UniProtKB/TrEMBL annotation:
Matches recorded under InterPro entries: rRNA_ssu_MeTfrase_G, SAM-dependent_MTases_sf
Catalysis: reaction(s): guanosine(527) in 16S rRNA + S-adenosyl-L-methionine = N(7)-methylguanosine(527) in 16S rRNA + S-adenosyl-L-homocysteine
Protein family (similarity comment): Belongs to the methyltransferase superfamily. RNA methyltransferase RsmG family.
Source taxon at top rank: Bacteria
Name of encoding gene: rsmG
Protein name in the entry: Ribosomal RNA small subunit methyltransferase G
Organism: Haematospirillum jordaniae
Functional description taken from the UniProt entry: Specifically methylates the N7 position of guanine in position 527 of 16S rRNA.
Length: 186
């Protein structure tokens, strides 16, 4: 908790000069960002060691999961200022993460056990962007808002996947999608 509190302090400090999260969420930072990210912990597959968070932004959920104990976490973010923030959080909290300051398409990360992304793109686009990081055993954890079912229906036109849906602890209208066995339809 101390490390997460330090993270929150850094976020509030850096938010003054870099738009890391929506200003309207700062008053509810712990629920909207930290709990929303931490709730993925219970959905991680047993034995998962490697995770890539695409479009990391301010580090949600990847940095939170790294602080909670995921062994190897890669944060991919193209905004250099946000990457500087992520590196500072890692340094100040003593968290081992690799920050990739590049576009997702250019990132070179070996296939991983888990892929996360929060508030980046539609499900179909996320599956496309994350394809090079997946194997047949990779699990995708994607928090989605009230359009989750619509996005899932759209993605199933291009992708075959095993889907599990979990209610969000932070928003009654949100869902966490846990996807596995993801394959593009030919």
């Amino acid at each position: 908790m101390e490390r997460l509190a330090l993270y929150a302090d850094l976020l509030c400090k850096w938010q003054k000069s870099i738009n890391l999260v929506s200003a309207s969420t700062l008053e509810d930072l712990w629920r909207r960002h930290f709990l929303d990210s931490a709730q993925l912990w219970t959905l991680l597959p047993q034995g998962a060691k490697t995770l890539v968070d695409i479009g990391s932004g301010a580090g949600f959920p990847g940095m939170v999961l790294a602080i909670m104990g995921v062994d190897t976490v890669h944060l991919i973010e193209s905004d250099q200022r946000k990457c500087a923030f992520l590196r500072e959080v890692a340094r100040e909290t003593g968290t081992s993460v690799t920050v990739h300051a590049t576009r997702i398409e250019a990132a070179t990360v070996c296939p991983v056990d888990v892929i996360t992304s929060r508030a980046l793109a539609s499900l179909d686009k996320l599956l496309d962007l994350s394809s090079k990081f997946r194997t047949e055993h990779t699990i995708c954890l994607f928090p989605k808002g009230q359009t989750a079912d619509i996005e899932l229906t759209g993605a199933q036109q291009t992708w075959t996947l095993r889907t599990e849906k979990f209610p969000s602890l932070t928003d009654a209208n949100a869902t966490i999608l846990r996807l596995s066995e993801v394959r593009r339809e030919l």
